[in-house]
Amino acid sequence: MVFKGRIRKLFCLLFIFNVFVITINNYFGVNLSAQNRDKEYEKFHPGELWLDNNGTHINAHGGGILFHDGYYYWFGEHKSEHTSSALVGVKCYKSKDLYNWTDSGVALEVVKNDTLSPITKGCTIERPKVIYNKMNNQFVMFFHLELKGKGYSAANVGIAVSKNAQGPYEFIKNLRPNAGKWPMNMTEEQRLSSIKPGNFDKWWTPDWMEAIKGGMFVRRDFEGGQMSRDMSLFVDDDGTAYHIYSSEDNLTLHLAELTDDYLDYTGKYIRMFPGGHNEAPALFKRKDIYYLITSGCTGWAPNEARLAVAESIWGPWKQVGNPCVGEDKELTFNSQSTFVLPVEGKKDAFIFMGDRWNPQKHIDGRYIWLPITFEKDKPLIKWHNEWVLK
Ligand code: DGJ
User: Fold this and answer.
1) For each of the chain's 390 residues, which pLDDT tens digit applies?
2) Residues whose CB is less than 8 angstroms from the CB of residue 259 and which lie 6 or more positions away in sequence, other chains included
3) Is the Cβ–Cβ distance between 289 and 377 less than 8 Å?
4) Which atom of ligand 1 is nearest to the CA of 229?
5) 3-state class of 28 per DSSP?
6) CA 226–ligand 1 middle distance (angstroms)
7) CB 3.0-4.6 Å disulfide test: which of 64, 123, 125, 194 passes with 129?
8) Euclidean distance between CA atoms 325 and 75, whole angstroms
9) Could you identify the atom of ligand 1 that is nearest to the CA of residue 297?
10) Whether residue 359 has its Cβ less than 6 Å from ligand 1
11) Which atom, in ligand 1's list, is nearest to the CA of 152?
12) DSSP 3-state helix, strand, coil percentages of the chain (rounded to 5)?
């Protein structure tokens, strides 16, 4: 009898505790799943919970968008509560108007029954981007891949394909780009230099930085391929596709041309801003001018965005300062770039897409989508609590 009484007490306590947790969650608006959505969105609300058709906060971080046959497809990292590791894979959401998104499931699933697979559950998959190849009617996904248990040391790109925009995607390969190829803008003297990382006891000294600018890490990684971390894809008007990625231990960006099927590298690539420490590249084009928004390298913490401009994709590229204006411009409105979306059918409408990461609760990362305006061809990003497409 005494025993039964204790069990009843325990259940009562559990029940009260549950009610308490649910109330707190709802009060602070942090319940990320299955909230009721009684009406459609008609505006963007940067930084707020963004519920999909099921009333669940969209789970597509570090994302990118593909427009195909009248629909936008948003691909991004599925994140869990306590880890940023890939326990599920790449999620896809579908929309006609960019405000309201339907959960289209997992586009690329991690492998659950083979610990040897490069995309085994628990690996790191970041910043997936998808492009469409007209030539063979195939969708191609690139993503930053880190192997399970190896931190950020693999610095690989992963490639997957599908015949359907929303997937499922089939994993094809992972690699470090451009093995055995020199960047087009590295001089003969830099290629032949014998300065090696082993010559330095300390990093970040002026001499070491000079050696980095001179391509020391490109030479180090020449045979095995160049490191590839934060990344994006860009398809130019002539159909040529490019992969842009943070290379050389995140110190230098590389921009590499892809083969016609978008599954390989032609071997043509350049280094951008050697030693400049740029991450989170988002490349776009307007009126024959190429623009690039990047961030600095401060982990999950936000920093000041950087804008670069060029008349040719192969450069020269010039960094021209921070495109953000107004309060919190120094922290990119507490976000980090991931993609710039040209809005279909609207002249000069571009959306800056950023992530407000939450390393304490990864799944609660928020999306900062803001309109890009142009002042004499210079892109500007201003904060809006809410806004609509014009
Ligand atoms: C910053 C990168 O931009 C993110 O994609 C992620 O790799 C974090 N660093 C990890 O700290």
Assistant:
1) 444 555 455 444 444 444 344 334 433 444 455 666 778 999 999 999 999 999 999 999 999 999 999 999 999 999 999 999 999 999 999 999 999 999 999 999 999 999 999 999 999 999 999 999 999 999 999 999 999 999 999 999 999 999 999 999 999 999 999 999 999 999 999 999 999 999 999 999 999 999 999 999 999 999 999 999 999 999 999 999 999 999 999 999 999 999 999 999 999 999 999 999 999 999 999 999 999 999 999 999 999 999 999 999 999 999 999 999 999 999 999 999 999 999 999 989 999 999 999 999 999 999 999 999 999 999 999 999 999 999
2) 265, 266
3) yes
4) 7
5) coil
6) 18
7) 64
8) 28
9) 1
10) no
11) 7
12) 15, 40, 50
**Residue ID of nearest Cα to ligand 1 atom 3:** 280
Question: What is the distance in A from the centroid of ligand 1 to the CA of 126?
Answer: 8
**Residue 55 structure tokens:** 């009333």
Which mutation among 124, 125, 230, 231 tests ligand 1's pocket best, with the greatest number of atoms within 8 A of CB? Answer: 230
* Nearest CA, atom 10, ligand 1: 299
Residue 257 Cβ < 6 Å to ligand 1: no
DSSP per residue, 236-268: -TTS-EEEEEEETTTTEEEEEEEPTTSSSEEEE
Ligand 1 centre distance from Cα of residue 297 (Å): 8
CA atoms of 32 and 226, how far apart (whole Å): 38
Smallest CA-to-CA distance from 61 within 76, 40, 41 is with 76
